Amino acid sequence: MLKKVEECLKQLTRGKRADLKDDICILQTCQDERMFVKASELFLQKWKPAKQSHLTEYLDYFQTQWLLKNQKQNLSFCHRRVEATNTYIDAQKEISTN
Hints:
- The protein has helices spanning 2-8, 14-27, 33-47, 53-68, 71-97.
- The chain is mainly alpha-helical.
- It has one domain (2-97).
- Helix 2 (14-27) packs antiparallel against helix 3 (33-47) and helix 3 packs antiparallel against helix 4.
């Protein structure tokens, strides 16, 4: 997904591109469907008013291909990512207590 951001948004400044990628990464950390839906709404509210044609085109693609079409798959990915993070944190706690 982030590679597609780079391809589609070359016209944005490096800072805006980084902000957009950060926001996409935040979406990937949502822990449940309700949070994902709300975060998606906020993401679109933040970026759609920019009214830059290449950004609007990308956001339309992102919304249909990633937020709507693949929502369940993305939530599954988010759950696996959170579980992996929790496992890592637990391992670090165990190491530090020994």
